[in-house]
Amino acid sequence: MAYSLLAHLYDAGQVRVTEVGCHFGVGKATISRQIKTLEELGLVTRVPDPQDGRASLVSLTEEGAARYGRAHGARLASFREMLAGWEPAELGRFAELLARFNESVAAAPRLADPFD
Question: Cβ-count burial of 43 within 10 angstroms (0-12 exposed, 13-18 middle, 19+ buried)?
């Protein structure tokens, strides 16, 4: 989940912890544990929300953004290598099916987090 969490923060910028939990469909306790781990690694920073001191805002540190960038680049290179031998028509069909799958995942009801 660390890569996905870093990717979300990379795209979203500074956001509330609860928003991150909602994005992933998990409770505050679960996402707080994940963020705490990334915070201890120096990849994420957490600050009080100036509009609501009870809430926290999280964002990537410079190191977090750099590590995410390296990991993302390596993943893209790996995918390109895996798909290098595919025909254009095969890639087109794969893209269509993957988009359909992603739409189904997005529309599916979230399961309750058993750790909350």
Answer: buried
Question: 84 vs 48, 76, 78, 91, CA distance in Å?
Answer: 46, 12, 10, 10
CA distance 25 to 1: 12
Helix 2-12 vs helix 62-83: angle between axes, to the nearest 10 degrees? 110
Cα separation, 69 vs 63, whole angstroms: 10
CA distance 83 to 100: 19
pTM for the full model? 0.79
For residue 99, pLDDT beyond 90: yes
Question: 26: left (phi > 0), else alpha (psi -120 to 50), else beta?
Answer: beta
Q: What is the CA radius of gyration of the chain?
A: 17
pLDDT digits (tens, 9 = 90+) for 45-63: 999 989 988 888 999 999 9
